[in-house]
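Data deposition worksheet. Section B asks for the primary sequence of the deposited chain exactly as it was used as input, without tags or linkers unless they were present during the calculation. Section C holds the resulting structure in token form. Section D is free text for depositor observations; keep each observation to a single sentence. Incomplete worksheets are returned to the depositor.
Section A, Depositor: J.P.
Section B:
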Amino acid sequence: MSMGDLVTTFSILGYDPHEPAWGIAIASRFLAVGARTCWGEPMAGVVVIQAYANTGNGKEGVRLLQQGLSAEATIEQLMAEDRYRHLRQMAVIDWAGNVATYTGEGCTDWAGGVVGAHCAAQGNMLANGDGCAAMVEHFEGSSGPLERRLVDALTLGERVGGDVRGRQAAALYTVRQPFAEAYDVFTEPVLSLRVDAHPTPCGELSRLVDLYELVYFPTSEQERTAPTPEIIKRYQVALQQRGYYAGSAHGQLDEATRQGLGQLARTENFRKRLPAELPWLALRLLDHLEGRKHA
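Section C:
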């Protein structure tokens, strides 16, 4: 078994039993950290590999999970067969939401992991262990979509005690129970978002999650607003700036404005955010178009 590449990093794994869904959020000073570290399959679980990472452990870990091994048993079997186990770090969540984490004694300090309810945080070459504890505490106390919970926890971990060398890359990987029949991208059970090189990768990953929610999630009741003249004017200005509307910002929901909204939805994949008859408009989408963070 190969020794692998040194991937100094920190990560959090989480499980949502209500969907069910499994996921990993990870950040590192290592280029394109998500390309080699995150592994998983729907209804099997997820595996993250770190430190002197050997991708074979990721692939084999998923295979063992698919055979029904628990998270703990998966790590035990992989490490029993790995002569470089003292340099490995990994964590696993199995199909039932059981969690296990492993840190070899040869990993660079600070190195270790913290296990919580349906989650685990781990890292090596970190400023301290406080970041891992903070990620677990945040995940346990949060609610909402799994992707947001994981990335928010990762961002907190970065502030409290991330990689001592700084950050370069971050990634999010989640798997869900598959639909009965795959139809389009919205029925795909695997999500992979990657920031391969960026000055603030956790912040950029958070921005990508915002965009993912805008594209994939329908507008909630709390995000809907009446099509008042003021709201329509703001939409018209935003549509003008994107080249979807050539009229004035008069505040009336006329045919040209409707056509502009339709073109926006089709071109930028916001079909789930704008209803066909427009009895309401999406305030969160408007904030996005204006470059503002939705409250």
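Section D:
The two ends are 49 Å apart (CA to CA).
The mean pLDDT is 93.
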